[in-house]
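ugh ok fine here u go
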Amino acid sequence: MNCEECGSAFEPSKSIQRFCSAGCQRKAERRRYKQKKMAEGSWNKGSCTSKKKKQLVPQSFTCSWCDSEFQSIHPMQRYCGIECNAEAKSRRRNFRSFGGTIDQFKDLVEANEGRCEICGGYQGLDLCCDHSHATERPRGLLCKKCNSGVGFFCDDPNLLQRAIEYLNLRDV
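structure:
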């Protein structure tokens, strides 16, 4: 049997199959649709392509997270790249869950000079918002290691004190 669209020979899988492929079937359907519209007088070739596309010109913006300048054609773009977007999203979600805003977070980081409140290591905007699991209220800003450590000790000062005593006794 020969395909009605391209004329190539093929073995039909069904007795009513008229085309060798789905692509040929789509071409035939488009051709029939165009012929029908032309007969009705509603086919206007070029109506879609005649509209001029608006030229987008890159503009300068300031990243809402790292404050660096970047170029973009999208006026709503707030971050210079994927990394800043992911970091800001993570920090916003973390800080907002305790009722704060990204500006309050940045103010706290500035007040702490970007340092962890436990180890004093400089982390800049990479600080985590530590919170009480009992009250869900924020306690301060910690680096990821200190925040994880406090969490692993279940926010229990007695458990932390026992860990300190253990380390002091077993100092090798």
